[in-house]
Amino acid sequence: MITLAEPAHGFSALVRQYKRQVIELTGRIDLTGTPLHLGPTDDAIAAGMDPTKTWLVKGGMLSMSCQQRKLFTWDEGDLILPDVSGDGIEFHADAAVLLVGFDTLTLVRTLLADTETARLWTQLLMTQHGIMTRLLAAYIDEDLQTTPGFAYFQPGDIIIRQGDQPRHVYSLFEGEAEVLVDNVPVGSVGEGEVLGALALLTHSPRSATVKARTRCAVVKVPKDQFKQLIRSNPSMIHGLLTDMARQIIKLNGQVVALSS
């Protein structure tokens, strides 16, 4: 496994340990995989790399990217586990690569059927987790780190009050809330939406009240860190624009209904 970033302390030792564990683990199981020969490609999945399978790199190198950002390169002896979401991860190769694919469910059942291979499998997962944690530390710029907080609201609680000065941006990850202007309901917000960004971006007081309709859980990002978060996570801009467009469509519909 090769990373482009400066690895955190202990990274190299963990990679060596990981490769030893893969060799020991694969040497203990009697399971035939499916070979896959790939030439140079910008999209290994389109070229036949099933993202639901577990892949062992037998030769060559396969680069891994997320959101068009190259993360690291898998090389000979690495075991590539399937991504839990099945979306957003891309693989590409600059030269020929030989992979061996295993049905993930069959592989795990085989590993857990024996005490020793189950122990090795658990250790391998823990080692890979340690590697990923250090890769994450290597990629995050210290100046861009944020310290978000969490807050919970019961039905009827005020999350944002109209007229207040903006101090936080809120990301609603659980529950549903209603939006009121001058105590008149004008819309609602649900899970995954960002609250309070407009007032912060325009340096103006809150233009609406947001009240919890159900139990709500939010992530609070302080205003002095919000712009840093946008710079380090450009996809958030797309989310903000989508949320704003959705609210505008709702308001337009209400205006039309009132006019008629």
Description:
- Strand 12 and strand 13 form a beta hairpin.
- Helix 1 runs antiparallel to helix 3 (115-139).
- By secondary structure, the chain is α+β, with helices and mostly antiparallel strands.
- It folds into two domains: 2-139, Jelly Rolls; 149-259, Jelly Rolls.
- The protein contains six helices and 16 strands.
- The termini are far apart.
- A four-stranded antiparallel beta sheet has the order 1-5-4-7, with no helix packed on it. Strands 2-8-3-6 form a four-stranded antiparallel beta sheet.
- Fraction of residues in H or I helices: 25-40%
CATH top level label of the largest domain: Mainly Beta
Q: How would a textbook summarize the main sheet?
A: 4 strands, antiparallel
CATH topology annotation of the largest domain: Jelly Rolls
| Secondary-structure element pattern, one letter each | EHEEEEEEEHHEEEEEEHEEHH
Q: What would you give as the CATH superfamily of the largest domain?
A: Jelly Rolls
| Tally of alpha and pi helices | 6
Q: What would the keywords be for this entry?
A:
alpha+beta, Jelly Rolls, four-stranded antiparallel β-sheet, 36% helix
Topology:
Layout lengths: L1 E2 L7 H18 L5 E5 L15 E6 L2 E5 L2 E6 L4 E2 L8 E4 L4 E6 L1 H9 L2 H25 L9 E5 L4 E3 L7 E7 L2 E5 L2 E6 L4 E2 L1 H6 L6 E4 L3 E7 H10 L2 H25 L1
How is this structure best summarized?
The chain is of the alpha+beta class. 36% of the residues lie in helices and 29% in strands. The protein contains 6 helices and 16 strands.
